[in-house]
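Support reply, case 0932

Customer input (verbatim):
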Amino acid sequence: MTIAKNRVVGIIPARLQASRLPGKPLARIAGVPMIEHVYRRSRLNPRFDEIYVATCDRQIAEAAAAFGCPAIMTSDAHQRGTDRVAEAARGLAAGVIVNIQGDEPFIRPEIFDALLAPFDVDPSVECTNLMAPIRFDGERDSLNAVKVVVDRRGDAMYFSRESIPTRRMGQSTAPAFRQIGIYAFTAPLLRRFTELAPTPHEAEESCDMLRLLEHGHRIRMVSTDVALHSVDTPADLARAEVLMTTDELFKMGIARQS
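Our regenerated output:
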């Protein structure tokens, strides 16, 4: 599959209900809703034909419309962001759909080039996922960070909120990576995702991608050194407020047009 000949659509799943930070998508960072930061930065990548917000909350849809992003209303029954994205994608003409996490206000547009590159060179690739090297013990121990181990081809073997590879055997020399929750799917695989039964490890780890692994699908992992700062907790939000004041894209005027 040569994705240059297909439409690439980005979808940002969002809902107000969140256990760790209720109302997270509309939380303001430097005066701008978090989801607006995500949309405006992602839109800078020219590979996207369209970007949408997928939500079950009218308040989010209205906020998205205010900053120029079309919204697709979805069911309020989804427990996984990927299921919400899949529902929103049903009526869209797209060869590849990118699931863009709405809690990545420092997202860089260039990371989508890396995410999409495997589709250009390997026609067997159906799904890609970004990962970043773990540099701090705090990341390895945080249950908010999903860790991943890969095989020699670069395909995911397992995702966990626990520290993997283990450090119980002494100082680990194996590289450690955390998942960045930004995925790309071929349209057929995304449709297939919703037909697959939820799986035990998916539920235990609270990780969408384990559903694909447990049903035998491959996920090509792509490493990036781009530093992102996801927002999961009130402390993360406070940190983002400080970091945004020196952020290069924000200082250039991105996401200031509320």
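We compared this against your earlier run and they match. Two observations from our side: The domain at 3-131+180-230+241-248 is CATH 3.90.550.10 (Spore Coat Polysaccharide Biosynthesis Protein SpsA; Chain A). The chain is about 30% helix and 20% strand. Please reopen the case if you see a mismatch on your end.
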